[in-house]
Every structure is written in structure tokens, then in C-alpha cells.
Amino acid sequence: MHVEEQFTPKTWPEAPEKATLEGKNKFLGFWFFLGGETVLFASFFATYLALKDKVPKQGDLVSTDLFELPLAFIMTMVLLTSSITSVYAMYHMKNYHFKKMQAWLLITVLLGLTFLGFEIYEFYHYTHGLGFGYTHSAFSSAFYTLVGFHGGHVVFGLGWITALMVRNSKRGLSLYNAPKFYIASLYWHFIDVVWVFIFTVVYLMGMV
Amino acid sequence: MKEGFKLTMKQWLQKGRLLSVFAILALVLSGCGKPYLSALQPAGEVAKQQYDLIMFSLGIMTLVIVVVCVIFVLVIVRFRRTKENEHKIPKQVEGSHTLEIVWTIIPIVLLLILAVPTVAVTFSQGDVSAMDEKDEDGNPTALIVNVRAHLYWWEFEYPGLGIVTSQDLVIPTEERVYFNLTSADIKHSFWIPPLGGKLDTNPDNINKFFLSVDQDKASKAGQIFYGKCAELCGPSHAYMDFKVKALPKNEFDQWVSDMKNAKAPTPSTEVARKGEEIFNNSCLQCHAIDPSNEAPAATRVAPNLANFAEREKIAGILDHNEEELKRWIRESDTIKPGNKMPVFSKDQISDDDLNALAAYLMELKVQKK
Amino acid sequence: MSSIAQKSGFGATVWDFMTTVDHKKIAILYLAAGGFFFLLGGIEAMIIRIQLFVPDSGFVSAGLFNEMLTMHGVTMIFLAAMPILIGFMNLVMPLQIGARDVAFPFLNSLGFWLFFFGGLLLNLSWFLGGAPDAGWTSYASLSLNSQTHGIDFYALGLQISGFGTLMGGINFLVTIINMRAPGMTYMRMPMFTWTTFVASALILFAFPPLTVGLFLLTFDRMFGANFFNVAAGGNTIIWEHFFWIFGHPEVYILILPAFGLFSEIFSTFSRKRLFGYSSMVFATVLIGFLGFMVWAHHMFTVGLGNIANAIFAVASFAIGVPTGIKIFNWLFTMWGGNIKFTTPMLYAAAFIPSFVMGGVTGIMVATAPADYQFHDTYFVVAHFHYVIVGGVVLAILAATHFYWPKAFGTMLNETLGKITFVLFVVGFHLTFFIQHFLGLMGMPRRIATYLPGQGLDTGNLISSIGAILMALGVIVLLINIVMTSVKNVKVGNDPWGDGRTLEWALPSPPPFYNFKQLPFVRGIDTYWIEKMEGREGITPAEPLGDIHMPNGSILPVFISFGFFVAAFGCIYRTEQPWGLAVLIIGLVIAFGSMLLRSLKDDHGFHIPKSELMSDKDKGVRA
Prior knowledge:
Shape of chain B: elongated
Number of helices of chain C: 20
Domain Heme-copper oxidase subunit III family profile (chain A): 28-207
CATH superfamily of chain C: Cytochrome c oxidase-like, subunit I domain
Order of helices and strands of chain C: HHHHHHHHHHHHHHHHHEHHEH
Oligomer: heterotrimer
Order of helices and strands of chain B: HHHEEEEEEEEHEEHHEEHH
Transmembrane segments (chain A): 28-51, 71-91, 103-121, 141-166, 186-206
Largest interface: B-C, 99 and 97 residues
Radius of gyration of chain B: 28 Å
Radius of gyration of chain C: 24 Å
Mean pLDDT of chain B: 92
Shape of chain C: globular
Largest sheet of chain B: 5 strands, mixed
Membrane topology (chain A): Multi-pass membrane protein
Strand order of the largest sheet of chain C: 1-2
Largest sheet of chain C: 2 strands, antiparallel
Number of strands of chain C: 2
Low-confidence stretches of chain C: 1-5, 618-622
Number of domains of chain C: 1
Main location (chain A): membrane
Number of strands of chain B: 12
Mean pLDDT of chain C: 95
Structural class of chain B: alpha+beta
Low-confidence stretches of chain B: 1-7
Protein name (chain A): Cytochrome c oxidase subunit 3
């Protein structure tokens, strides 16, 4: 199977992302990479839990002073939805419907940007509104680093998906770019799972 | 023939090396190093228990080494290639279930045997519950010393006795002394090898343990044990020595009483009086000379000098005499790079004033003798 | 780019090495760079031992001494031992599994250049205000306190290098899982491939905690964060946990490939298959797994509590069991064999008693209450040098001889090799054995000098003399390498004569595509099987056909260079007006190059079948 081979929805392989050796390698390699990223985020979570509410003096801002459920909930719903839309995109990829895949990827990116918008607003509110800056306390450093690293991953993921969409817009699906779309979507799911943990550990646990 | 000779030489080299290693081992285990510094000459119960554990584990491990080396030497001698069997292809053996079981089970058993005293001693040496016991007046029954490590000196506070001192830790023999260990700045580690293992002094928390000294061992070591900082803390990490004076109970009580009843210094000569004036202007802001210093710990930024003249060393490492004292005041930054004491040049304290200051300091005693 | 039309000349060679994605050439890059850093680390060690030759020495200042001991540790572990081992894994593993390259050749190159620029960054600190001086462990409160930018170079240099290593780990894992030749089941893989596999899994899971620790240190030092600032609620012990959660698996990352190399050497030069292959595989996996469970045995004196200390002590004992299994299996590989004491085999023989001594002192320091005495003294220094030098370095020296022909096509001189062996091994024991006693006699680690009258003089003197012998041994090795390169006498595919695994079936060095036809693997030690049946080569698994190979690329150099530049910008951000700009430019170069790589298609190229048939046939036949 040559990578630039032309297909129809009927001849397109069932698992196009794994139909070539390169695809298989990318697929496995990326799962391993996500394993390493899991340990990375686990370490940030551990740091956050160790330094939760650790402030220089009594009365300094702690988690119960900061986090509000409505905003965190909306952000969670937006990101979870964007994960579902990326699943739709992959469904269409597997069925060789390039345009539909692109459409759902676009929606995913828009939802991701929405999430980012809310997060920027949230950080702005904490820093300028409440005086809870990065260098404020050990707790603040831990919070911003954990949630910020996640946000940085969201930014990277959005850039990645957008670059793929733009680069391949004129030439459609092939066995060469199918694995690329697939692992980008895997990455996007991963970020979503991390956010579920952030929502639980930082926001929910921070309100008791 | 020549090849056979060369090979034998190599085996001799390997065998000889092993032999010399064991020879040194045997020689040195008979108690090596200085009695005031070596962990191989334990002078108290904690060090003795640790020494016994070391010997026990060494014994088991020597057994392992011997077994391995015997098989090893046998193998390299018996199965080496010679001119005769140059082209022989040996039987390709896959393995042996029996052997695998044997050399799995036996090490497990040996390690279980070692694990028992390891866990037991960990818990017994980590039992500091006695620090919480109080007598009828609500005072702790145990002798407790708060150790506060600094860059690059040690402060010792006896909270139950209202005494603060530094650099020389005075403790009684034949009783457990409990320690609260912490640091004023960065991580150091408190270690008196003949008395026991070390425990880190962290800025984040207070660590607790106990040590004790046997009187006869103390006498053998000349009453003085050497303490070391055992955690890299900067350029002068190697110079952060302290001393431990292990005294019989009555002498220790005498020292405590002298420290508690210490009076303000009375300089005996004109020069020393001048020195006192200089001290009060230039040094008193950091160095207290009242052993009952009740200022909060964080403000005690320099060693308390109440019994300075009775200490073993100056700044932990210098010989205790006027020359070295003056050199320290002039050149503390080169003697202990990175330490927090400012340097006093001739512009700040002239040579005459320095002599006076030294004379005053050399008179700072608490005990009569 | 075909095998025939190759340009010659210095410039062409440099460009070739800078753009190569060939695992064999990347291996040579790793070996050369790692070798260079090994010499640097050795010089740092010599300075340490010269300083400690006599008490109260002023050979170097205390501050410089701290920089020396820090850089010696960092250089030897991160810039010498790891890269050299990765070099051997790169060179040998794909050949052993019958693959034409690794799964991600571009990433392979990127891994090297990231390591290289990270190491360069770290060593530039010497010239830019001072090297890091808080030990290779860089504990939080001390490292935050450090006045020069040395620690910043440490944090960012290791961060960049670490990304490279992580990529290497993933690459090897995917290669071994997906690209084994037909017939190469997991239980037919050579031991060195198995240890590469497990070590790569360790790299994947152990480096992220280091990454996080380094980020926290960077943020505290350069961006005002408070992770380790006690006054603001921070905690310095967090650094220790992260460092050792990485640090302990790290030493197994070092030793497992060394074990793998020795497995190959023992069986090759005993003319016997490895005894207890399945037990060896099991022991390797168990060591890898247990390696993650014991990190706090480096923290027994931190004050974690009795329960923690007891648990970690017993868990640390457990690792002794699979290690012992391995030692006995090697001994019984030799038992009944026909042993030839070539230079690699001499190193393997010396490894047994040396490493076992290091291993048993490991059990001794795992005995928590005893460790209260051992910790942070020269006893620990003796222990880890016994396992690292007696294990990893001896393996590296052995493998240098063993695999030299496979990498370069020539053979190192045996006589000079044996001279190095004697000097180095005798010097090693002389240097480190006495240090066990120095530690117990009251000598802490990392002290710039020791005072006279404390009983430490003689031991230090002996130790320093031993170091001189080790240095002489290394110098003889360098002479050996130069002489061999000058003489340039080429050897065949199996110069040791008793090769058992696939790499010895190929020419020395192999053609850039490795196998003309992917091999058919018939069992463990498949080349030995073919030999014993009187065949000259390997049974092929496919007919001769076009071979698909990857293109070279200069982008890995640019990506790494970009991060290198960005690091400078980050370090000098607050002090210099150009800081922020340089940081941004560096990131643009790095990410821009990555984008270029992603946007531009790269399908590799094909070697046509006709070219393969017209090449002089060496090794595999159609």
C-alpha cells in the first residue's frame, strides 16, 4: 500500500491510522508519550496537593476564597464537548469523509478556544481582581503551574490541529496524514482527561 | 605454553586483588580511625546498635561475596580456553530450574533475616515518646536540646534549662539526650559519628531523635567528640565542625548551674575593658553573651559567646588562641567563604583595638576554673 | 542517496553526520560526544582527588571544589554514561532484532542533538560566572541559595538533554515492539535488546518527575515561584522526592544496559548460550519494576518517619534478589564453557566481584538505621562508584572493544586493551575500596578538604594514587583508539569469531540499510544456530526487493539550537535587555523548525533492487 494511494470510502482501510508501519509506530509511540505525560501531570498534581493552601500567613488567599463552581463547570462542559466533537471527526475520518472530518475538527478548535477564553478570564480575575498572582505564595505557584501547564497543552493542541487542518485542506485524506490526525485527536482526549482530574482535585476539592 | 602463563598471571592478579581486599577488611575492622570521630568505635548505645547492624549485615554480605567468588574463581580457572580445546564447542545448556529456585530462595531468606533487626531498630531508635513525658511541675523529664543549624555554625538551646550556647555541645554521659533539629536557613545534617547516625536539619520542619554516651568510652576519647555537618551546604560545608563535650552527670550539672548563674563579664585588665567597649559597639548586635538569651530563635543570628574562652575551637575549626582569633575577625570570609559574619578590616577596627577585643574575648568564661 | 555515490572530504563528512538519521551514525555521534564528556568528567575527578590528596589543601578554592564535584557527577551520569549506553543501544539493538533502523529515525537524531546542546549549555556555565555547585542532586534550599547562574544552567541544560533522552526511550520501545524481524519473538530477543527495552520503559516513566522538578526549580529561581520557599509556604523536601523518584530508576537505566552488554559478552566468549534466559528476562523486568518502589532509601535521614524508613528499607532489600539471580546465571553461563579472555571478557570477569561488592554495600546502606551512619559519607561514595564503575564503566569499556568493529570496521589493539584493563581495574579498587572506611571513620561527602589530625589522611592519599592509575588506563585507551584509527585495518563481519546474534552476520560496519533482505529468525542466538548448521549467513525472510529508507535532515540541529538559544534568553531575562528577545527568538527557531518538519512531507527514498544486486555481496545472500 503506497501512502499516496487514492481510495474510496469502500477501499479505505478500517483503521487507517494503523494501516502502514509508520502509522503503527506513530500510534504506539504516541501512547507511550501519553504515558510519560501522565506521570508528568501526576507529579504536578502531587505538588499541588502538597502545597494546597500553603500560604505565608493566616488570612492569605486559599482555595475556598478563590474557586467558583459555575465557571469551572462551564469550562468542563466546553472541553468535554470538544472531546466528543473530536470523536465525531475521527468517525468521519475512518469513513473517508474528509470534509466532515474537517468540519468537526473546526468545531473542536472553536470549543477549545472558548475554553481558553474562559481560563484567561479566570486567571485575570484572580491576579488583577483578587491579587492572587503567581509569586503570591507556594499555593499560588502550585495552582498556576498545574492549571497553566494544562492550558499550555491546550494551546499546543489547538495549534497542532489547526496546522493539520490547514496543511491538508487541499489534498484530503491519505494513509500518510491519517495517523497524524489520529494522534492529534488522542492528544486532545488526553488533555480532556487531565482536565477532569483538575476539575475534581483543584476546583471540587478546593471548595470543601 | 606462553599463553597459559599469561592467563595464570591474570587469574593471580584477580585472585590477589580479592585477597588483599579481604586482608585490608580484616585489618581495619579491628577498630579504625580516631575514637572521637569514628563510627567504628561506637561510644554510646545508638552508635553501638548501628555498629552491630553494620557488622551483622557485613557478615551476611561477606558470605554472599565468598560464595560468588569461590564459584567465580573455579569457573575462570577450570573452563578457560587452552591450545588443546581451542576449537571445542561446549554443550549449550538452557538452564536449571533447581538452581534458579536455590539462588532465589536463599537470598530471600538471608534478606528476611536482615530485615528483622532492620525494622526493629528503625522503630526503637525512632521512638522519641520520652520527649513528651513531664514531671509533676509540667517540665519535661528528659534532657532536650534544640539544635539550630546555620551557615556555617551550630546553636544549642536547652529549653528546659534556659540556656543558649553554640559550637560546643555539652551533654551528660549515661543518659539519653533528645534533640529537636532544625535549620535557620538551608538544609544541613547533624552528625556525631561515635555517638550515632545523623539526622538532617531542615528549614521546613523539626526532626527528633536521641543519642547517649557511655562514660568509659567518653573517657577513652578524652571527653571530646567531633561533630560534622553531613549535608552539602555551600563552600564552607567542610568547615562546619562542632564539638561535643561529654561530661559525667555531676560535672554536667555544674556546667548547667554555672551557665544559668552566669554574670556579666568583668574584664580584668585595662586592655580587656577597652575590648569590652569595642565588643559592645561592633559585635553585640549579633553575638549575645548572655547564656539565658531569651530573644526569639530567628533573631539569634550569630553564635552566643558566653563561654567563648572555654571552647575547643574558634569558629569550629581554628586552634583556640589569640592569633587565630584575630585572624578570624580580620579574614572570616577567606577562612570560611560564604559565612555571614562581616569582615572587620583595619579601617573598622584598628590593630590596637583588635588586640583589646581579643583580650576581652579570651576572658569570656562561665566556669571558675 | 544511494550506497555507491557517496561524497568524500571533511566538509561532506561533517554535513553527513549533522544530517544523518542512520542509527549507526547517530550511535557514533553519541559515543564520540559521550566519550568527550567522559574525559571532561575524568578531569573533574582528578581535580577532586588532587585536592583531597593532602589535608587542608588549597589546590582549588572551596567554591570551585563544589563546582567540580557537582559537574563531575552531572557530567558522568547525564553526559557520559547515559549517552554512551544510548549509543550502544542505538548501534546494536536494531541489528539484533533484524530491523533496518529505529521506528523514528528523525527523532533519533533530534534526541542526540538535544543531548549535545544540553551538555554544551551546562558546560558553558564554567565560562559564564560559574558552574552549578550544589551537587548533582542540587537539593532545593542550597540550590536556591546559589549566587551564580550555575544552577540555572544545570536546570535548563538537563531539561533540554532530558527531552532528548525521553525521545530515545520512546523510540527504542516502539522499535522493539513493532519492528522485530519475522521469527523474532520476545523470548528470542538477545539479552541486550531486552535490557534496552526495560531501560527504555524506565526512561519513559522516570524522566517526567525530573522534568517537573527542574521546572519547579527553574520557576523558583527565574520566575519568582515559591515551591521551595519555606517562608511562603513552600517545602524543600518536594525537590528531594522528585529528584529521587527519577534518580533511583536512573541508576537502573544505567546498569540494565550494562547487564545486557555483559550477557552478550559472557555467552560469546564462553561459546555457550546464556544460562537461564527466561529467568534473566524476568529478573530484568523485576529490577525495572522494583526500581520505582525504593526512592526514599536516599532520604532515610530526612525525617520521613519510622514507617516510611522501614518500608523503603525492606523494598530496597528486595532488589538484591533479581540481581543475585543474574550474577549466578552469568557464572553458570561460563560454567562448562570454553572461555577466551579477550579484553571484553576480562572486563566481564572483573565485573563479577566488583559489582557484587558494590551490590552488597547497597544492601548495607539499605539497612536504614545503619544508613544513618553511612548516609552522606564516603561509604556511599564508595558504594555507588563500585556499582557504577564496577558495573556501568567496565561494561562501557568492554563494549567499546566488543562493538568497535561493528561501529568502525576496525579492531582495537588487544595488548593495549589489556594494559588499560589492568591499570584501570587496579586503580579503581585502590581508589574506592578505602573510601568505605573513610566514610565510617567520620568523613562526610562533598567536603572540599579535611582537617589534619582526624585520621583521614592515609586513606585519602591511597585513594588519590588509585585515581592516577585510572587516568593512566584511560590515556592508554586513547592511544589505542588513535593507533587503531591511523592503522585502519579492516575486519570481517564476525571478527571475534564466536558471534551468536544477528549483528555479527552483517559486514563491519554494516551497509547503511543493514539487511539486504530482512532475516528469518530461527531461535535464540539465531546466527549461532546458522553457524552450527554450517551455513555462512542468515536465512532470509523475504525476496530481494526495493528498500525504503528515511531521508537525512538538518532540522534536528536547528530545533536543538533553538532551545539552546532560548535557554540563554531565559537565564539572562531579568538582567540583560536582550534576554527576553533572545528567549523568544530561540523558541521561534525551535518551534519554527518543528513546524517546518510537520508541514513538509518526507516520504524517504527507495534503494532500487538493481543497486542491491550490484553491490559487492558481503554477508546476506539472496
